[in-house]
C-alpha cells in the first residue's frame, strides 16, 4: 500500500501548511475518513446538503468542512456540488479497504487524545492513559469484546502487509522446511503468501479465537484450507510441536520467554523468523515508529542489534538480519542440529 505522505500533496497545498496547522489539517482528514466522506463521494458528485444529510454533518460546519477538504486538494467543488479528486480516490478509497478506513482512523483519534497531555507524559514518565484515567485494554481483551473491531483490525493488517508478505516469500528460502507455525499470525497474510510461494509447505496460524475466525475466512478465499490451518491459543504459553519453522511477524519487541518457547518447540535444524520494522542501530529511524511511542503504541522499541542479540542469547545460531522490503527487516536464527 502506498502511503499518502506529504510529498504527494500538491505544492500549492503544502505551501499553506506550517508545523502548527498540520496538526489541525491531519485531524480534519481523520474526521473525513471516520465520517466516510470519500467513500460517500466515490464515483459520485453530491451537493453539500446531500452530503450533510447522508453523513449527519451539522449545517453549521458542513460547508466550511467540505471547503477545507477542497483547499487541501482532496475534494473538487463545482457550484454547490462536491466530488473526490483523483488524489482522494487513489489514497483514501482504492488503496484502503473499509476495514483500514474504520480501524486506522479510530486509532488516529486515540493518538490525538494522547497528544493532549504529551508534556505531562514527558515530564512525569507516566503513560497518557494513566494521566487521563483511561483503562488500558490489552490486545486479547479488545479483540474478544468486539467482533467488529476484531474484523477491522485484523483485515486492516491483511491489507497493510501485502507488500512485505510477497517480498518475504520471494527472499526467504524455505525449501528445506515443511511446516511453519505463524505465531500471532493474525489475518494469515504471511502464511497465505508463503504457502502460495512454497507448494510443499504447511502453515498454521496461532492466534486468539476471534482473530483465527477472520484468518480462516481469508484462507478459504485463497483456496488454501488444505495446507493452511488456524489454531486458537495463547502465544504466551508453550508453543505446539510439529513445525520446523516458527514465524513471528509484527510482534515488536519479542519477549525472551516467547523466544525460549520457540526454541523448545523447534526440532534441531529448525529456524526462527522475526519480521518487523525494528529501529536502526542508532535508534533514530524509522520516524513513524518512534513518534508512535508517544501515542500508546504497544509494540515497544527495539533495535535490530537488540533482537539479533536476543536470539543468540536463547541459543540460536547463524543469526542474520536482512532488510528485504522498505524499512522492514527479517531476522533469522537456526537451532543447532548437534
Task: Give descriptors for this structure.
Arc Repressor Mutant, subunit A; Rossmann fold; 3-stranded antiparallel beta sheet
What do you see in this structure?
The chain is of the alpha/beta class. It is built from 17 helices and ten strands. It has three domains: 6-94, Arc Repressor Mutant, subunit A, CATH 1.10.10; 98-156, no CATH class; 158-334, Vaccinia Virus protein VP39 (Rossmann fold). The strands form two sheets. The protein has a seven-stranded mixed beta sheet with strand order 6-5-4-7-8-10-9, sandwiched between helices. Strands 1-3-2 form a three-stranded antiparallel beta sheet. Strand 2 and strand 3 (81-84) form a beta hairpin. It is globular, with a radius of gyration of 22 Å. The two termini are 43 Å apart. The model has no long low-confidence stretch (mean pLDDT 95).
Distance between the termini: 43 Å
**What is the mean predicted local confidence, pLDDT?**
95
Total beta strand runs: 10
Which regions are unreliable across 5 or more consecutive residues at pLDDT < 50? none
Strand fraction equals 15-25%
What is the CATH fold-level name of the largest domain? Rossmann fold
Amino acid at each position: 500500500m502506498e502511503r499518502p505522505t506529504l510529498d504527494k500533496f500538491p505544492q500549492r497545498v503544502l505551501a499553506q501548511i506550517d508545523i502548527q496547522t498540520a496538526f489541525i489539517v491531519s485531524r480534519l482528514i481523520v474526521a473525513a475518513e471516520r465520517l466516510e466522506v470519500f467513500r460517500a463521494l466515490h464515483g459520485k458528485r453530491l451537493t453539500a446538503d446531500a452530503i450533510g444529510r447522508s453523513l449527519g454533518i451539522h449545517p453549521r460546519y458542513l460547508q466550511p468542512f467540505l471547503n477545507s477538504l477542497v483547499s487541501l486538494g482532496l475534494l473538487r467543488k463545482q457550484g454547490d456540488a462536491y466530488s473526490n479528486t483523483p488524489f482522494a480516490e487513489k489514497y483514501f478509497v482504492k488503496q484502503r479497504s473499509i476495514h483500514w478506513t474504520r480501524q486506522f482512523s479510530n486509532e488516529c483519534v486515540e493518538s490525538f487524545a494522547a497528544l493532549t497531555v504529551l508534556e505531562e507524559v514527558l515530564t512525569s514518565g507516566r503513560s497518557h492513559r494513566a494521566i487521563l484515567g483511561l483503562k488500558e485494554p490489552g490486545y486479547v481483551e479488545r479483540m474478544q469484546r468486539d467482533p467488529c473491531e476484531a474484523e477491522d483490525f485484523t483485515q486492516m493488517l491483511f491489507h497493510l502487509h501485502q507488500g512485505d508478505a510477497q517480498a518475504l516469500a520471494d527472499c526467504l528460502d524455505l525449501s528445506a522446511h515443511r511446516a511453519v507455525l505463524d505465531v500471532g499470525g493474525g489475518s494469515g497474510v504471511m502464511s497465505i503468501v508463503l504457502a502460495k510461494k512454497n507448494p510443499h509447505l504447511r502453515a498454521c496460524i496461532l492466534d486468539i479465537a476471534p482473530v483465527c475466525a477472520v484468518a480462516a475466512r481469508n484462507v478459504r478465499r485463497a483456496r488454501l484450507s488444505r495446507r493452511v490451518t488456524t489454531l486458537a491459543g495463547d502465544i504466551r504459553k508453550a508453543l505446539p510441536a510439529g513445525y520446523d519453522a516458527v514465524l513471528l511477524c509484527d510482534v515488536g519487541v519479542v519477549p525472551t520467554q516467547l523466544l525460549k518457547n520457540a526454541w523448545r518447540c523447534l526440532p534441531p535444524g529448525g529456524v526462527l523468523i522475526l519480521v518487523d520494522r525494528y529501529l536502526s542501530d542508532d535508534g533514530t529511524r524509522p520516524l513513524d515508529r518512534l513518534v508512535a511511542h508517544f501515542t500508546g503504541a504497544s509494540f515497544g522499541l527495539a533495535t535490530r542489534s537488540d533482537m539479533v542479540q536476543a536470539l543468540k542469547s536463547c541459543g540460536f545460531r547463524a543469526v542474520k538480519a536482512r532488510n528485504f522490503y522498505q524499512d522492514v527487516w527479517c531476522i533469522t536464527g537456526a537451532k543447532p542440529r548437534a
